[in-house]
UniProtKB/TrEMBL annotation:
This is Kinesin-like protein. Residues 21-51 have a biased composition (Low complexity). The lineage of its organism: Eukaryota, Viridiplantae, Streptophyta, Embryophyta, Tracheophyta. Residues 1-64 are annotated as: Disordered. GO terms for biological process: cytoskeleton-dependent intracellular transport; microtubule-based movement. It is found in: Cytoplasm, Cytoskeleton. Residues 528-611 form a coiled coil. GO terms for cellular component: cytoplasm; kinesin complex; microtubule. ARM repeats lie at residues 661-703, 702-745. InterPro entries: ARM-like (IPR011989), ARM-type_fold (IPR016024), Armadillo (IPR000225), KIF11-like (IPR047149), Kinesin_motor_CS (IPR019821), Kinesin_motor_dom (IPR001752), Kinesin_motor_dom_sf (IPR036961), P-loop_NTPase (IPR027417).
Amino acid sequence: MASGYRNGSAKGGVKVDRPLSVNSNIRSSSIKSKPSPSPYNSHGLRRSSPGSLGGSAGPVKDDSAVSGRVRVAVRLRPRNAEELVADADFADCVELQPELKRLKLRKNNWDSDTYEFDEVLTEFASQKRVYEVVAKPVVESVLDGYNGTVMAYGQTGTGKTFTLGRLGEEDTADRGIMVRSMEDILADISPETDSVSVSYLQLYMETIQDLLDPANDNIPIVEDPKTGDVSLPGATQVEIRDQQSFVELLRLGEAHRFAANTKLNTESSRSHAILMVHVKRSVKGRDSFLSSDNENTSHLVKTLKPPLLRKGKLVVVDLAGSERIDKSGSEGHTLEEAKSINLSLSALGKCINALAENSAHVPVRDSKLTRLLRDSFGGTARTSLVVTIGPSPRHRGETASTIMFGQRAMKVENMVRIKEEFDYKSLARRLDIQLDKLIAENERQQKAFEDEIGRITLDAQNRISAAERSHADALEKERLKYQRDYMESIKKLEEQWAIEKQKRSNNQNGVGTKDGCLDKTCNGEDTAVSISEEVAEVKKELENELRLKKAAEEEVNNLKSQLAQWKRSEAAGNAEIIKLRKMLEDEAHQKMKLEEEITILKSQLLQLSFEAEETRRSLDRGGPGKIFNGLDSLVTQVRHPHARDPGNGHKASIAKLFEQVGLQKILSLLESEDADVRIHAVKVVANLAAEEANQEKIVEAGGLTSLLMLLSSSEDEMIRRVAAGAIANLAMNEKNQELIMAQGGINLLSMTAADAEDPQTLRMVAGAIANLCGNDKLQTKLRGEGGIKALLGMVRCGHPDVLAQVARGIANFAKCESRASTQGAKTGKSLLIDDGALPWIVQNANNEASPIRRHIELALCHLAQHEVNAKDMISGGALWELVRISRDCSREDIRNLAHRTLTSSPTFQAELRRLRIEC
Ligand SMILES: Nc1ncnc2c1ncn2[C@@H]1O[C@H](COP(=O)(O)OP(=O)(O)OP(=O)(O)O)[C@@H](O)[C@H]1O
């Protein structure tokens, strides 16, 4: 409202309290002038009567706001019974000059102030006239799509409710503005395209209550920050279809309104009542282009525009009475009510003053009343105010204050604006109907088309069958004709033959005349010759026919065999296609399997490259043989106590020792009585075992067995540590791995692991087991003999070197398992999971030591490649780690592997979807 109020200007040039002499006869009288006509001093209404507040009407442009001053009428109530008695000896405090639209407020018997209003309604003014001048122009505006307000202000008991809310059920002449407004609205709208709905509320003690649903008693005011429009979406809105239901609603609302019996009014309203009438109208004429009868759909689409919807809102406000608390005799709760009413009315007064004076600040937020009326004063609505006054000189002060309120309100300029918007809903509805029609039409055409095709096909088929039939008939006729001709010619020939035969026998019987005999004989011979020629010819023809028939039969047979062959080859072709298709499917299947294998091989390659890198780093640092670095000097001390040969001489001296002493001898020293010698011997063996070239010889010579013996029998931890280191070196070779397992190595290593405290011993043991974990054939045995548990048991020491070996062992094991699962050699979930490795894996998946982290990341990827592990991994929290690896792992290849693994597993995918995690 603040902006709305601020926009108000005093264009009307209202001069308040500036005395203006209008009649020299009236001494000391003064006129409080009516504002000079503003260029926009009309309501801009087409239908308002000349007597309306609107005055001369001018059209309002649809799309722009125009200035519209608040119109104010004053209405005087007739003396009531009490006043007729109490004020019998006194003149009224006001004198009205309706024709001049002036009101004189008596100061005393000889002096008065004169005020001009837009309309002055005497105590004799009918309700009809009051409606027509105060409200009708506003109602018409609302019907045109503007917001409008009609409000009554005045001292309690002066006729506000009488003016606005009278239902007029006993005497229709008494109908007030609310009832008459709805009558006009319902008469003007079209029920097919327009709608009217109402809300009825009261503002009581700063809370807004629904008069149509009193339980709804704390309705918030919602202000659109863009448009400044105020609405009460929490209020009940009832659609009105007829006047009777509206009157019922008003009666219902009135029954819920707070009222009290005060000294000044037995039925005094203690709340501000607000009736909101929402009028929605479709603007005709603009949407004719949407006619669904239009056959030409392209034309329809080209001209498609949404229809316009005009949304006018009429707000009728029956304010609670302004009153002097002492006069109204309010006390207790009624006193509180009175204070609240006065507070809100005074907030309204302040806002109107600020607007009238074009003040920069309008205190609109001081009360709910002013917030509700922000559009009515200084906003976009057409506003008409009726100030009601009583005649009693005893209430002159209140009457004067009401008049001043009205005078100031006359200075408030609103910028009235039409509320018009595109009716997309209606457009959508229409388009839906249009679309349905088009679809139905399309279906109809489609059906007609299909019917036509069917008809043509049937017709063609009939014609073909008819042609085939007539062709067959013709052929048959032809055949019969030829057959008949043939039979006839045979018959003729036979007859001829019989005649000739007869003739000949006759001739033979007539022998006696020599010449005649001779002649006859001669003739008979000629005839016989010609007949036999003819017979020969017929025979020839017959043979020819038979040959042709045979040829035709052969042709038919030939065609038949061709057809059979063609059918055979078609069947063969189909079989070939099926075969090829099957091959194609097999190929696709094979390809898929190969792709899977490639993925696994890639992951294994990754593992191997990682291990190679680790080994290289380890070698750079001194490697697993680091603890043996001192051996050279130790051996030298045993064998050559004075020698000092560090660095490069180390390997050379061991090799020399190997050559000089011989392997058997060195190995036998492992069982020496002398503990020192045993220590040095085991170190020498360990050093030799670090060289791949020596490993086979050591094993062949029984070195592995001796080293394993040392693990089980030696009390000395150093010996056990070095022996374990040597075994770890030997365990790098696949053949040795099997031997170690066969000789119960895993048990011995497990026992050593369980007893040892020294991290370096544990590191050696873990390294040995980790190497064994990398052997595909030993998986089940290693696990069965407790290898995984031994490995996991060593994590208790917490030393990063030990943890790195454990992680390597787990990664090796997971890799082998993954390989076995892919090849179908293993079903069921991972033995690592069965042995409880998952929690440690998950816990260390993000270990800050990169060797541990990398091994575990790889182990997780291997485990995740098999759907059978997915559920345990999810419940164990491994999914989060996989997601982390797929996002954050610094190694792109591992990152990609994790991502591939996650996206190819349906179980992981389902869980990720459930958790709404993008991967
Ligand atoms: N113009 C009028 N002609 C006849 N009677 C009237 C007129 N105006 C008011 N009255 C009567 O005066 C009394 C008080 O009127 P009304 O209740 O409308 O006053 P109000 O201003 O609404 O009072 P409040 O503010 O206390 O609610 C009613 O009995 C009403 O019938």
